Structures are given as structure tokens and as C-alpha cells.
């Protein structure tokens, strides 16, 4: 039986212009693309592969929010 789930992912734009997605609930689950539309497709595929092929279990994290922290370097 399949369960439908909604999984949080973190999307960023790198200095090279690529969009990069990582999935905190699946450590090591990352993908990249040149557009956000393609990134969404690839993220879904990466999640499915991590669960099905690698047998990874979802870590049950509760999404709280995103913060920006200012520092001086």
C-alpha cells in the first residue's frame, strides 16, 4: 500500500546559477537543475529513489521555519 506524503525540501541557487535541492528528512538526498520546474521533477525522483532503491527511512522532522543570520567575517 502506498502512502501519500508531503516532504520538505530546501532549495537554493548556487553561484553557478544552478538550483540545488536537499531533503533534510533523507540525509544525502540532493539534486540540481537549471530551472525550478526541472528541479521539482528531479527532487521528486531523487526522493523516490532514496526511499525505494536505497531503502532509506524518512526522518520525521517538523518544519519550524527558515532564518537568516547576519555575521561579520
UniProtKB/TrEMBL annotation:
Q: Which InterPro entries match?
A: TA_system_antitoxin, TTHA1013/TTHA0281-like
Gene3D superfamilies of this UniProt entry? 3.30.160.250
- What is the name of this protein? Predicted nuclease of the RNAse H fold, HicB family
Organism lineage = Bacteria, Pseudomonadati, Pseudomonadota, Gammaproteobacteria, Candidatus Kentrum
